[in-house]
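User: Please predict the structure of the protein below. I'd like the answer in structure-token form so I can feed it into my own downstream comparison script.

Assistant: Understood. Taking the following sequence of 373 residues as input:
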Amino acid sequence: MSQAAPSPDAPGTPAVSLTASRHFAAWLAEQRVSLALTTYQTGKLFLVGLQPDGRLSVFERTFNRAMGLWGDDQTLWMTSLYQIWRFENALEPGQTHEGYDRLYVPRVGYTTGDVDAHDIAVDATGHAVFANALFSCVATVSERYSFTPLWRPPFISRLAAEDRCHLNGLAMHDGAPRFATLCSRSDMAGGWRDRSRDGGCVLDIATNETVAGGLSMPHSPRLADDKLWLLDSGTGFLGYIDVSARVKSSDAPRDGGAQTSEFQRVTFCPGYARGLALCDGYAVVGLSKLRASETFAKLALQDALAARDAEAWCGIAIVNLNSGDLVHWLRLDGIVAELYDVVVLPNVRRPMALGFKTDEIQRIIDLDSGGAS
């Protein structure tokens, strides 16, 4: 199954070519989900669902440096170059717009400045929290300031715009930030780049303890069933860390005392893995091609691909977590070479979104039926 993605923001521009495995569309139908994914390299938000005849529906919009995502069937949050956006579905239940059953409209934007915002999530109060890589902290949005810092690793001596440890990933537990992935424990500007091969770690935000170390550019931690799933991007493996003792304990020690855990490898991914969503026994993994850079040249992923006589590709891999098999996939070719994040949109068949490059956003108006008449 192969098709080109239309570009409503820039008609006539080179299309992205998408090729799906034989049963990828059927998997979306069986799971009753759609997918949203971002590529910051070309600044795209892609929404992948199904057309009425069962073929893939791929819709894209342009946002500068589109990166972290959080979503459900009504709301979508996304980090971008210097803003964080909240999209809301403008359609009523059962309503469609041009054949789409969700119309995500950017309603609220927070201007953060270029803080290199990576993962984003929503806490128990409905506020967005995000991995602020530039300032090496976990932060939340602010009505007054660029951001409000919530937590920083214990080895980071002060907040500074220096991307010291490349804090990129964020996992939630009970509506609060609980685990973070970092590429190193460096406390100097850009120091993580010298530790990309094995300096990565996972920290417990509640206790300041190291959960696991010796990782290679870990990304995208996601908590499910007392397992912290994540991508050890520098080696190419999807795997998990058993954190049951941590999440079930109400009196966890602070600042030391707990033992670190081993990262359990489950599946090798054919690309630089970044972006992870869990869906009913499956992992949806974002894959990117490798950059020609000194940082990437140090990674074990290069040798692992060569040993398998394979090349890195860009797209989505669906992994059965029980067997570890890569059962379905979606490849992106053309102008897109890197993805950052992916989320599952439950009970959504065919989503679309509004952007700012066309005049549609001027004409789509929905009213609050609870307001004055």
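That's the full token string. The mean pLDDT is 92.
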